[in-house]
Amino acid sequence: MIVRKYIVLSLMSIIVLVMVGCTAKEPQTLASPDAYQVKKNEPQTAFTIIISQTAMTLANQEVERYQYTDSQTVLYPAGVPLIMEAGKLITFTVENQTDEVTNIHWHGLTVPNDQDGPNIKIQPQQTYEYQFVAPEPGTYWYHAHNRPVRDQVDAGMYGPLIILAPEDEKYTGDAIFMLDDWLGTNQQMMMEQIGTIDTVNGLSGEAIPPLQIEVGGIYKLRLINASTAKTQQLRFPVPVRITHTDGHALTQAQIVESLTIYPGERYDVELQISQQPEQEFAIRNEREAGLVIPLEVKQQEEPMILAESPWQPAVATPLTQIDIDREADFTFVLERDGMHGNQHWLINGEAYPNTATVTMKQGETYKIRYENRGMHAMTHPMHIHGSYFRIITENDQPVTNELWKDTVGVPAGGSLELLITFTQPGTWMLHCHILDHEDQGMMLELDVQNE
Predict the structure, then answer these.
(1) Separation in Å, CA 27 to CA 77, 81, 94, 295
(2) 40 in helix, strand or coil?
(3) Cβ–Cβ under 8 Å, residues 434 and 380
(4) Does residue 313 have a cis peptide bond before it, meaning omega lies within 30 degrees of 0?
(5) How far apart are CA 91 and CA 176, in angstroms?
(6) Last residue of a domain, one of 132, 167, 202
(7) Is residue 92 part of a domain?
(8) pTM of the full predicted structure?
(9) pLDDT tens per residue, range 230-264
(10) Tally of structural domains, the chain
(11) How many whole angstroms separate alpha carbon 317 and alpha carbon 438?
């Protein structure tokens, strides 16, 4: 069993994650920061994913972790990025070089059931091949889904997956930011444990390379929350435009200066500045634990010209009052069982695997209602495999913005309703993406039949 994210951290190392060396079966070098620049990566149709165990030096302490890489000698601190084009047949050859049974869930992708997550078991020292046609463009990610799910994801089994849209090449820059947090040994493990140090693409504090930007240029930032429990509260130095949620384009961009990203969620935002800043320029989160993305502005040598956004908004599909008023086909009550010695997180009063399987038909649209109850209510980011859905009400009020997602925060003490249509038959999972909650029972199976 691998040593997870438990390292002895000094006060300075809580602020800065120093990756000054790494050892494994062969000497490894740290992947270039350009690896997480989408525009500098060519799309591919065949990938090799090596799942391995590696030792990294973090704040002068050696710690073992898992990684997804494509080479024995290159360490990708936030997983090897998979860049591809929609509509292409993609092959993934996965080599499990660890001593753990594992698998891969293609988070947010609509793919055939026999090519996704929980039902596949890749044995230690075995190779497995996934193959499917890349679905619609967007920002996604891939991660282990072998129970207990938290353990492998928490220790580094994840990476970004990008399906390019034609307009993406028109951005001045296009960058991936995998957000995570790590836990030190001086903290006792508990439910929803938040780590002591925040990372961006596996680096923290002064180790995070700056994003080079030009005045007037327009930049696409792909934000992915890979934390197993921590909600990321990002603050931007200038207003940004949200263009996509969980890979799906909005019908109208939203202008924000801060952004809440629950575990498993993704947001694409556009960043553009019109003048040279006079002070420090960075993206931060809500605490001083290392999440600082410096924005380094190039000196302007020619008159500034503001680039136009290449973003293509989605075609609106207006909700009808019938959609809003119709009764839910399925209601899922989310709550915690805190009355027994073993803590469980429940759906409709049961913990997985005792939760009832829900039967649906392929191609039929269903209305799902979440109710988040109990004295220990907290926001639950609920994720559904194999499809995506439209949010129609929150706390029984219509959602006016058209939002298509695969992971959504159900508010504490509140409710949320969505519409979903499965195009792929099979058994799919519905669960909380606070992975402690999933492992402790907040999950059920959706049996989608093609009859």
Answers:
(1) 15, 21, 21, 32
(2) helix
(3) yes
(4) no
(5) 22
(6) 167
(7) yes
(8) 0.93
(9) 999 999 999 999 999 999 999 999 999 999 999 99
(10) 2
(11) 33
